[in-house]
Specification:
This protein is of the alpha/beta class and 336 residues long. It has 2 domains: 164 residues, Glycogen Phosphorylase B (Rossmann fold, 3-Layer(aba) Sandwich), CATH 3.40.50.2000; 167 residues, Glycogen Phosphorylase B (Rossmann fold), CATH 3.40.50.2000. The chain has 15 helices and 12 strands. Helix 6 links the parallel strand 5 and strand 6. Helix 3 packs parallel to helix 4, helix 8 crosses helix 13 and helix 11 packs across helix 14. The two termini are 17 Å apart.
């Protein structure tokens, strides 16, 4: 099959992890994948919509199109898949407005109803799509990583200090900024601790030294592996429950134990005492990080369990197998 991914941008994190990462596996089975950014101008989109008839499958990623543009896409796409890894039917946690959006919800319902298949990044997202179409069309396909691209943290014994790490974008850094008081308390309680931020923006803390590390696709894996303990924090809301845990999977791939709060995919990925620790109160965060900071053997053991979880359930190969099964089903349905 000749597949076209309609994306926000070819370098967007969703496109890189949920489409182009699958390319070698799709090509090995005789498929061909192209990706194309959707133009911002409505007029510029028309030639793109007309070109859709050349493809066997069109994957519309994340975009909630207006009624007219969705109608045109559906008219010219032989088979349409809607792929998303965020609660796109809501506003985000940091918008300053209520999460619920009538326009987003209406457009989400329309694209889900129009699609031949829907690939959702987790069960929470899949459950939303079920409200608007036949459940048989919904496929939960997690965002996955390639563990082979990540070196493992060495977890050296003490003497060099202990490095916490957080990776993300300037938008999600807002969540960490909300926990400034918590981070200050952790820094004050655990001597020798520092926080590495892999991001395009940074924050300053009084009690916890911050190591600034500008994000780069070429260096992110090595920078993660050079740390000792990873952290993740999400607001307790439905936008966050739609998050697919990419940063946690990256941490696990680098062999890092993770400390996170009990929200969304954290509950599925961070297995308390096995791949890391779930913590809600400041005292629980301090205890979890203090325990890991003082025990490199424990860090290595939990990190190895996380890496194994990625290899078994959240590797790119696992996602590719789900996509190949889905494409086979679409082909059989069309033939029938």
């Amino acid at each position: 099959m000749h597949i076209l991914g309609l994306v926000e941008h070819p370098e967007h994190v969703c496109c890189r992890y949920r489409l182009t990462a699958l390319q070698p596996f799709l090509e090995a089975e005789g498929h061909r994948l192209d990706v194309q950014a959707i133009p911002k101008s409505s007029l510029s989109r028309l030639p793109l919509w007309l070109s859709l008839r050349r493809y066997d499958v069109v994957v519309l990623q994340r975009r909630l199109l207006s009624s007219l543009h969705l109608l045109l896409v559906r008219r010219y796409a032989r088979r349409l898949i809607f792929d998303y890894d965020d609660a796109v039917f809501l506003r985000d946690s940091y918008s300053g407005q209520p999460l619920e959006s009538t326009i987003r919800r209406r457009r989400f319902a329309a694209v889900v109803h129009a699609a031949d298949a829907v690939t959702a990044g987790n069960d929470f997202l899949a459950a939303e799509a079920v409200r608007y179409t036949n459940p048989e069309r919904i496929h939960a396909v997690p965002t996955c990583v390639d563990p082979q691209k990540y070196p493992l943290s060495a977890h050296h014994p003490g003497g060099h200090g202990v490095t916490l790490v957080w990776i993300g974008s300037s938008s999600t850094l807002q969540g960490l900024e909300r926990q400034r008081e918590l981070l200050e308390r952790v820094g004050s309680a655990v001597p020798g601790l520092r926080l590495k931020l892999i991001c395009d923006r940074f924050l300053h803390l009084e009690q916890l030294p911050v190591v600034t590390c500008p994000w780069s696709q070429a260096t992110e894996a090595a920078e993660l592996a050079a740390a000792d303990i990873a952290i993740s924090w999400l607001p307790d809301d439905d936008w966050s429950r739609g998050k697919c845990g990419l940063k946690v999977l990256q941490y696990f791939a680098a062999g890092l134990p993770v400390v996170a709060n009990r929200v969304g995919m954290h509950l599925e990925l961070v297995r308390h005492g096995e791949t890391g620790y779930l913590a809600d109160t400041p005292a629980q965060w301090v205890e979890a990080i203090r325990r890991l900071a003082g025990d490199p053997v424990l860090r290595r053991r939990l990190g190895q369990h996380g890496r194994r979880l990625v290899e078994q359930r959240f590797s790119v190969r696992c996602a590719a197998n789900k996509w190949l099964e889905l494409l086979g089903g679409l082909a059989n349905r069309s033939a029938a």
